[in-house]
Structure to design on (219 residues):
């Protein structure tokens, strides 16, 4: 039986941080829509060129493009037993498309942890975030500093500040989340799969809460 987990929460809630920590324990690949877009941006693909304007403005990339990208990613062999989704779905249309595509993959959304963090905290988290150039590992200058400033602890690559982590774009992204993504909270609550986690706790405590609540693949 495959397992699909959707990490839900506003920008800066800690979805990427937690996914990088728990994907090994859950034995599920971490699929981040934002990371896939940034990889395409770096490689200057057609998809990257299309997504760039939306991402830089803090808006969502259109549903049809995003849904097709995720469908292709989930059809690869490493997602045979499921996936840990981070940043997708983000609109009701994407959530519905995911439900439909998982029927084709003989699965369903099994659990949706909502990592909840108030708006005031999000801005400080995002404007102090440093991201690794090679693999998207995430640090924070105050809350989770790397051992050597500017260098990723995990792969030694350069750390940079995301273009969309400027204060004004962050505010826009939070507004977009409230308008377009927060309706998914009710959508998944009605399906009985929503798990609320307090994202204001330490990174370690959030990990502990997630791991104790989430379903595991059979051995
Ligand atoms: P995406 O990359 O998904 O960005 P996001 O959703 O805005 O989320 P973030 O990555 O900013 O936050 P996060 O929750 O992962 O937080 P993190 O763990 O890094 O999307 C970017 C753009 O791509 C979108 O704006 C859109 O344009 C496009 N896009 C992506 N998916 C799309 C979709 N499905 N449809 C359409 N468009 C899409 O943590 C943040 C910081 O806080 C870090 O510095 C971290 O070290 C720190 N931190 C984490 N946890 C804690 C803690 N517990 N205590 C203290 N600090 C913490
Ligand atoms: Mg992220």
């Amino acid at each position: 039986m495959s397992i699909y987990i959707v990490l839900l929460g506003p920008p800066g809630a800690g979805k990427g941080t937690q996914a990088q920590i728990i994907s090994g324990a859950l034995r599920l690949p971490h699929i981040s829509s934002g990371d896939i877009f940034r990889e395409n941006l770096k490689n200057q693909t057609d998809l990257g060129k299309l997504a760039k304007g939306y991402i830089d403005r803090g808006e969502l990339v259109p549903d049809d493009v995003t849904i097709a990208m995720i469908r292709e990613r989930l059809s690869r062999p490493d997602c045979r037993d499921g996936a840990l989704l981070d940043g997708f779905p983000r609109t009701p249309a994407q959530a519905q498309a995911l439900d439909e595509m998982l029927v084709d993959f003989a699965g369903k959304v099994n659990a949706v942890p909502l990592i909840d963090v108030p708006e005031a905290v999000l801005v400080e988290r995002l404007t102090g975030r440093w991201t690794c150039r090679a693999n998207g590992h995430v640090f924070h200058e105050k809350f989770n500093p790397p051992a050597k400033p500017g260098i990723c602890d995990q792969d030694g690559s350069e750390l940079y500040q995301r273009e969309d982590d400027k204060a004004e774009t962050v505010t826009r992204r939070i507004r977009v989340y409230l308008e377009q993504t927060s309706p998914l909270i009710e959508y998944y609550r009605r399906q009985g799969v929503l798990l609320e986690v307090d994202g204001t706790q330490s990174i370690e405590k959030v990990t502990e809460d997630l791991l104790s609540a989430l379903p595991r693949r059979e051995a």
Remarks:
- The pocket of magnesium ion (ligand 2) is lined by residues 15-16, 32, 34 (CB under 6 Å).
- Residues 167-181 form the longest helix (15 residues).
